[in-house]
Amino acid sequence: ILMTAHDFCDNFGNCGQNLLLYGNTGVGKTFLTHCIAKELLSQSYTVVYLTSIGLFDILEKNKFDRELSSLEKSTTVSYIMNCDLLILDDLGTELTNSFTTSQLYQVIDSRLVHKKSTIISTNLSFDDLREQYSERIFSRLTSGYTLLKVTGEDIRLKKVIEARQQ
Q1: What CATH number should be reported for the domain holding residue 26?
Q2: What total of structural domains would you count in the chain?
Q3: Mean pLDDT, consecutive 10-residue segments, the chain of 166 residues?
């Protein structure tokens, strides 16, 4: 996993690389995305980090909030679609409906077509991803992303237990 993360950073900018990190809660998926983001920011790449709930909240407001100007709306979407690296954390924690599914498809498909790198982390299994999202989304994730299963103990839980024992 670390070798893949190093390769991702070392070869960033050569082509649109994508990672799908999946595994149980607390095994370090978010920490790994933060490390990659920090390295790429130090190389002057643009990085946008959003939780899936945050992404869909932004896209919902962008679509339905009449108080936002057209410029604000286009700027927001442009930044999400065109940043060098989009990190989408905790996919699967949002309320899934036709709006979120269609928006997720648009984000993933647009970034794949334009060779913009994306990292997605999730606690969902492949079966859960296929069930929760459309076959089109699942197909793009499994064919356009390097799939990394992150395993191990729940680090947060381990820290809490160790702190209580002291």
Answers
A1: 3.40.50.300
A2: 1
A3: 94 91 95 98 98 96 86 87 98 95 97 97 94 94 95 78 78
